[in-house]
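Please fill in the sequence for the structure shown.

STRUCTURE ENCODING:
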């Protein structure tokens, strides 16, 4: 897997974290499918790691923006949010598991979960650790499946990898 492909995947998943029409899962499958046949399993790990990092940077930015939003709400809404925050932060293991499941399954959508966690005042450490683990699992499963399918279907993927490298270079403007 080339450095250009990894950089393109990182940028793509970073953007997909804030622009919902950019599909991170499609980027993961394409990158993993372009991995060399003998290296698809380690390649899946790299794809999952890079993708999870890109997504979590943008989701953490959303989380941070939402954390500052309650100060702009009307007094009554702030009071209701404060009550919900006390109830939510009183069960950190349930919060951790809820964020993990949202990140891993997409239900509820992780975009909304990121905003809600920030507005409720969830600790950054809880959000980042559970979100990263969930995204890593999600992208790892997708990448391993695509890598195995790519190796089985194409045998030698040099043509696919070259096409992905050209696409990445075009996106990065090289």
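FILLED IN BY: designer on duty
SEQUENCE:
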């Amino acid at each position: 897997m080339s450095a250009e492909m990894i950089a393109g995947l990182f940028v793509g998943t970073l953007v997909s974290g804030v622009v919902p029409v950019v599909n991170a899962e499609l980027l993961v499958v394409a990158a993993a499918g372009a991995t060399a046949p003998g290296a698809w399993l380690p390649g899946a790990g790299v794809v999952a790691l890079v993708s999870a990092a890109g997504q979590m940077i943008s989701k953490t930015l959303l989380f941070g923006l939402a954390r500052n939003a309650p100060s702009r709400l009307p007094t009554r809404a702030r009071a209701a949010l404060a009550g919900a925050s006390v109830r939510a932060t009183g069960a950190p293991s349930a919060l951790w598991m809820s964020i993990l499941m949202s990140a891993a399954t997409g239900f509820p959508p992780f975009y909304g979960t990121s905003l809600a966690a920030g507005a409720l005042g969830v600790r950054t450490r809880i959000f980042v650790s559970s979100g990263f683990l969930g995204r890593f699992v999600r992208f790892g499963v997708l990448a391993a499946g695509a890598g195995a399918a790519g190796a089985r279907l194409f045998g030698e993927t040099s043509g696919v990898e070259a096409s992905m490298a050209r696409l990445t270079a075009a996106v990065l403007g090289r």
